[in-house]
Amino acid sequence: xxxxxxxxxxxxxxxxxxxxxxxxxxxxxxxxxxxxxxxxxxxxxxxxxxxxxxxxxxxxxxxxxxxxxxxxxxxxxxxxxxxxxxxxxxxxxxxxxxxxxxxxxxxxxxxxxxxxxxxxxxxxxxxxxxxxxxxxxxxxxxxxxxxxxxxxxxxxxxxxxxxxxxxxxxxxxxxxxxxxxxxxxxxxxxxxxxx
Length: 195
Hints:
With 195 residues, the protein is mainly α. Helices cover 77% and strands 0% of the residues. It contains ten helices and no strands. The chain has helices spanning 6-20, 27-34, 38-44, 48-68, 75-87, 91-107, 111-138, 147-168, 172-186, 190-194.
């Protein structure tokens, strides 16, 4: 029996979801992406729900790894790198955004998917809040700002930017520039901008 690794099946699920959308996604199309059989997918995953659960976990691990690998010399630098990371137009990020938008649409009808997607949002908000709190503690971000509220706002702007990039090919550079302007005018204290 062909032992196609589960990772290859998950990658094929990702490609197939981006190509066909959730509504037109079938196990046959996923199998075609791996040049294997539908029965082999069932060998690794007993149900389509189990496959999608594993797929979302797989995407989540990739996403949180990217977020945790963001490291800067100062909180503003780290926030800048995070924005570049999540707004970058490279193929892997664009593909991730497309897959998440497809799943977001489906999540209106599937509580399991909705719950998993909430984990993505929470991871982004938590990482943003961590950076913002470090900036407040180090004196480079406005101490009057509420890190949790600001993190929620930035996460909402980032998720909106993902939708615009995917749905209308809006420029990532423009969206990035707008968020940087916001950070410099609302988060960074005046002395830190002048330094």
